Amino acid sequence: MSQSTKQIIAIVPAAGIGSRMGAEVPKQYLALNEQSILGHTLDCLLSHPKITSVIIALNPQDKYFSALPQATHPKLLTVIGGNERADSVLAALRYAAEDSWVLVHDAARPCLSHLDIDKLIAATTVFPQGAILGAPVRDTMKRSKDNDEICSTVSRDKLWHALTPQYFPVKALKDNLEAALAAGAVITDEASAMEWAGIMPGIISGRADNIKVTHPDDLQLASLFLNNLSCQGK
To answer: Which of 115, 120, 119 has its CA nearest to residue 104?
Structure first.
């Protein structure tokens, strides 16, 4: 089956509490330009014409999601997530058809554009094993000792910040995540599970405004980026 005829499912792991924000609610539910961060993320995924469904993994104690306007969208399915990101992604993958492809996207990256999604989907003609969005490192990189004293300067050549979405065949990602977790491997994103299995994903340059809201200062920046995306029609 060709890539153009395969189902594309989006998964959003949203079971975390985002403690670094220091907020009373999980960071994905903080207000951003008149709705929640998660609302913006879901709007982009749900409105993309090539995405057939969106599966969101929630904390079992979540009491905020049902109030979102996106909660009743016909393309949306909710599942119970786990303690770690990989557990939540794996819980969602179990509801995805094994012959489909999956876009895994951070709940707190609300500035995603349809253009970046299109670039990632198209990249499978070059990277049939799957690919991720990334941002080339622009700053000088330093490595420090345990006491935070600099010990070396690291070359930034071919060094990337990993972004999301990350795009893989459902069966391959599910099998490799299960095997990596069973082996006790440290899995920080979906690509690391594929790398652990010896499968090297491609990486393509994404938009610099596809930021992850992690600290309070990020909210103002995300607001500016969202306003710009709205003007461009995403």
So the answer is: 120
Q: Say if residue 148 is exposed, middle or buried (CB neighbours under 10 Å; 0-12, 13-18, 19+).
A: exposed
**Distance between the two ends of the chain, CA-based, in angstroms?**
30
Q: For residue 1, what pLDDT is reported?
A: 45
Domain residue ranges in the chain: 3-232
> How far is Cα of residue 143 from the mean position of the Cα atoms in its chain?
26
Q: From residue 165, give the alpha-carbon distance in Å to each of 68, 72, 111, 117.
A: 22, 23, 12, 7
pLDDT in tens, 193-209: 999 999 999 999 999 99
Are the beta carbons of 118 and 131 closer than 8 angstroms?
no
**3-class secondary structure, 226:** helix
Q: What is the DSSP string of 3-17?
A: GGGS-EEEEEEE---
Statement: residue 119 has pLDDT above 60: yes
Report the C-alpha gap between 6 and 189 in whole angstroms: 23
**Rg, the chain, Cα only:** 18
CATH number belonging to the domain at 3-232, selected among 3.90.226.10, 3.90.550.10, 3.40.50.150, 3.40.50.300: 3.90.550.10
pLDDT in tens, 77-99: 999 999 999 999 999 999 999 99
Q: For residues 190 and 104, give the distance between their C-alpha atoms in angstroms, rounded to a whole number.
A: 8
